[in-house]
What does this fold into?
Amino acid sequence: MTNRVISVIVATVMGVTICCVGGLVGLSGTATACVPQTTATPTASTDTAGRYDTEQRGHVATIVQVGANKKVPGRGMVIAVATAIQESVLRNLGDLGAANDHDSLGLFQQRPSQGWGTPQQVMDPRYAAGEFYDKLLTIDGWQQMPLTQAAQAVQRSAYPNAYAKWEPDATALVADTAAVLGVEIPGGFGMCTSASGWVKPVDAPLNSGFRTDSRPGHDGVDLGAGRGTPIRAAASGIVIKVRCNAYNADGSPRSCDIDGNLSTPGCGWYAEILHPDKTVTRYCHMLQRPAVSVGEEVVAGQIIGLVGNSGHSSGPHLHLETHTGQPATEANAVDPVAFFAARGVDLRSVRTL
It folds into this structure.
């Protein structure tokens, strides 16, 4: 796939009973109602839609309508729109002669020579969107993938990491367009965003609390999600740590790519995000290396990893910590239940999708 990008200035936008030990080994407001799932707009500039012209927003409407007709989940619509922004900036590009990248055409820069259809077909936005969705839906586990990975699996771009930066705009555009069209997004966006821009990282029961009498050293809470469940960034911010933190009983380093146990100290694969209010969230015991990198900007609801059982853990779950500053330490750890409640998210509730 091509990377012909017209420059546009945009703003950044199973529950099982388990236990773990909070903290690492060897490493140093008013609550608001949750926005309904079908209209959730993760943290994005409020004028996102206004920064795209009538032609561009018309193409978003086509992508959303085709997705709704095919009953594609909201996540798929966001992936499709983000891909179209990256590939064509939502312009239905024809043959640009010498400036063309091979025979790439249309909103998604699909190539007739690669089996996407005839030139006339791929220049039809409805056809092109339908072909994109049809390919996306054949990819096993696409809903659990980071956006850039799912888009790349469809597009096979020479710039596979370029799609993710458009996720905030794409999410806002899909939500805004669906509201204008009166289209119900199948499955919503897979999350519920508070008015202050925070989400519950996994929709799972709260199995263990913060520094309880039986576990006074537990510096977070445990959410009993099943293995492989996507973990979402609780709010926008910058990734400040991605590490493996696991040790054998004798103190020697242990791989985080294998299951831990109660004799294995450490947080396993984990990531930390620094948020604009200078707070930090920590996500422990991931299945594999997190899907984000240090220095990467993330938005609320972005998939940052998968629930696993690495480190000091007796079963798959997310150990979630909240800290009032950085570096995140035992001294500045606070109860995530109260922390999230102040931001409009109830960690104790579980939605039924």
Observations:
- The domain at 193-341 is CATH 2.70.70.10 (Glucose Permease (Domain IIA)).
- The chain has seven helices and ten strands.
